[in-house]
């Protein structure tokens, strides 16, 4: 019986050998690097290379088409200006708020995202000449016949998007007309707020509204266009003056050649709409993009959870160490990363640390670091609990035979603890997979962000979230079944 038990322990130890695991992890990382997954670059060409931040959930100015290409008025303009002025651009999709932070942190050279030129923003950004004269309109559901003017908003809720001209206009008149505003980070969420009936109207830039209505988003405008601000290309104040000059010169050339009007009309003119709204048609047209997003989700999850396991073992051993200073280090790590939101950690690692130390970090690198450190804190507690679940007599018996503390932990305690930790480890794997969706705030196009990008183009939020929900369900159920089989094999 003892010999059989010893054989099982040795077999488990061989399967979960730290050396084997680290070797596997290194091989995985090298493979990813070799495939180009953990690196990003700019296509080589003549001229300077610039990284341009944007928000690709703001059609028709910037969005992603069915082929996965970044398109829109802003994207076409910056690409044409780059061609005219002989420089290269790499588009960095982040979301509006994150795009502004990226430029301020010098993580991006400039931002083009339907950004209104305001006196407040001029304090922290240098702007180009205006490239589009915008304006604000109010819209309601096309089935709403009660709201026809601002006076009808009294006592009601209005949805607006963070940092937009529509939000500023709504704030300027809400006291007069007696309505409340609720803010959202992207246009799709703002529109969905009204569809659910929680808010009754939206204020948005008129070209965005007109494009959405043409796409069949179910809204109608009920007020005339209010005079608004102009859109401008922006760089961090005091930085990239040469890029700003090139943008202005290229914009002027596009207007003189007539190319500027061609770009505007291609998105706001007749025939700009694409109305394939059926569930099957939507799945067929978006499936390649969704698979790319799913691939990124799985890469983030697998790499992060592998690193988290190593961190969990290291800090878990610290948590049960006899040395008080090691326990203090382990406890501090766990308290920090379990005691702060993952969203805050992502912003701090991607924007805060590089800005403070003066270096750049890719969004993918920051995302893996964030998920690894966060999941590692929970893995630490899983390891600690697994070790403490093993009968203390096991340690005492080994020590009485003259076996050292670390060899006892490696050969006797950990092999038994691993079997206890397997269910919790798989559960953390699933949690980390879900947490990847939060990384969309730093511009990583995982599955959830891919869904937002598609919705920004076609406004089919219900069908799109249904498809994404089914994909998550299939993946998570497959992982759960796999973990059940693995657990049964290990506990035999």
Describe the structure.
This protein is of the alpha/beta class. The protein contains 18 helices and 13 strands. It has helices spanning 2-15, 18-35, 73-85, 96-104, 119-122, 165-177, 187-195, 206-214, 241-257, 259-268, 279-319, 324-338, 342-357, 363-389, 392-400, 405-435, 447-458, 461-490; strands spanning 49-54, 63-64, 70-71, 88-93, 110-111, 125-127, 132-141, 157-161, 180-184, 201-205, 219-221, 226-231, 234-236. Helix 11 packs across helix 14 and helix 11 crosses helix 18.
Short description:
The chain is of the alpha/beta class and 492 residues long.
Question: What is the fold's blueprint, element by element?
Answer:
Elements: H1 2-15, H2 18-35, E1 49-54, E2 63-64, E3 70-71, H3 73-85, E4 88-93, H4 96-104, E5 110-111, H5 119-122, E6 125-127, E7 132-141, E8 157-161, H6 165-177, E9 180-184, H7 187-195, E10 201-205, H8 206-214, E11 219-221, E12 226-231, E13 234-236, H9 241-257, H10 259-268, H11 279-319, H12 324-338, H13 342-357, H14 363-389, H15 392-400, H16 405-435, H17 447-458, H18 461-490
Helix pairs in contact: 1-16, 2-11, 3-9, 11-12, 11-14, 11-16, 11-17, 11-18, 12-14, 13-14, 14-16, 15-16, 16-18, 17-18
């Amino acid at each position: 019986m003892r010999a059989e038990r010893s054989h099982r322990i040795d077999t488990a130890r061989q399967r979960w050998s730290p050396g084997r695991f680290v070797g596997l992890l290194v091989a995985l990382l090298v493979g990813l690097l070799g495939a180009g997954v953990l690196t990003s670059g700019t296509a080589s060409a003549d001229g300077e290379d610039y990284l341009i931040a944007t928000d690709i959930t703001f059609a028709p100015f910037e969005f992603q088409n069915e082929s996965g290409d970044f398109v829109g008025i802003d994207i076409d303009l910056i690409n044409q200006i780059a061609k005219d002025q002989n420089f290269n651009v790499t588009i960095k999709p982040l979301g509006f708020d994150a795009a502004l932070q990226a430029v301020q942190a010098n993580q991006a050279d400039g931002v083009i995202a339907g950004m209104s030129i305001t006196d407040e923003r001029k304090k922290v950004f240098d702007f180009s000449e205006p490239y589009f004269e915008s304006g604000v309109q109010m819209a309601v559901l096309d089935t709403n016949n009660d709201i026809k003017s601002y006076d009808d908003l009294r006592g009601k809720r209005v949805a607006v998007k963070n940092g937009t001209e529509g939000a500023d206009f709504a704030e300027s008149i809400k006291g007069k007309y007696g309505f409340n505003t609720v803010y959202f980070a992207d246009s799709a969420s703002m529109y969905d707020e009204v569809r659910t009936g929680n808010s009754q109207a939206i204020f948005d830039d008129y070209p965005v509204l007109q494009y959405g209505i043409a796409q069949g988003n179910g809204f109608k405008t009920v007020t005339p266009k209010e005079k608004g601000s102009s859109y401008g290309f922006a760089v961090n104040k005091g930085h990239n003056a040469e890029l700003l000059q090139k943008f202005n010169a290229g914009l002027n050339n596009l207007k003189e050649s007539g190319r500027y009007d061609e770009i505007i009309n291609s998105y706001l003119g007749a025939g700009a709409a694409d109305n394939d709204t059926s569930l099957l048609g939507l799945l067929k047209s978006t499936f390649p993009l969704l698979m790319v997003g799913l691939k990124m989700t799985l890469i983030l999850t697998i790499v992060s959870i592998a690193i988290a396991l190593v961190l969990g073992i290291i800090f878990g051993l610290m948590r049960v160490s006899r040395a008080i200073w090691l326990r203090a280090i382990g406890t501090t790590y766990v308290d920090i990363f379990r005691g702060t939101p993952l969203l805050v950690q992502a912003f701090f690692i991607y924007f805060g640390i590089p800005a403070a130390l003066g270096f750049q970090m890719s969004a993918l690198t920051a995302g893996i670091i964030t998920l690894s450190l966060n999941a590692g804190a929970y893995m630490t507690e899983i390891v600690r609990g697994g070790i403490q679940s093993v009968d203390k007599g096991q340690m005492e018996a080994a020590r009485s035979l003259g076996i050292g503390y670390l060899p006892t932990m490696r050969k006797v305690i950990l092999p038994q603890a691993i079997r206890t930790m397997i269910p919790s480890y798989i559960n953390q794997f699933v949690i980390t997979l879900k947490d990847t969706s939060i990384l969309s705030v730093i511009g990583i196009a995982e599955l959830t962000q891919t869904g937002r990008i598609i919705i920004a183009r076609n406004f089919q939020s219900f069908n799109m979230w249904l498809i994404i929900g089914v994909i998550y369900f299939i993946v998570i159920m497959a992982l759960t079944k796999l973990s059940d089989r693995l657990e049964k094999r290990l506990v035999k």
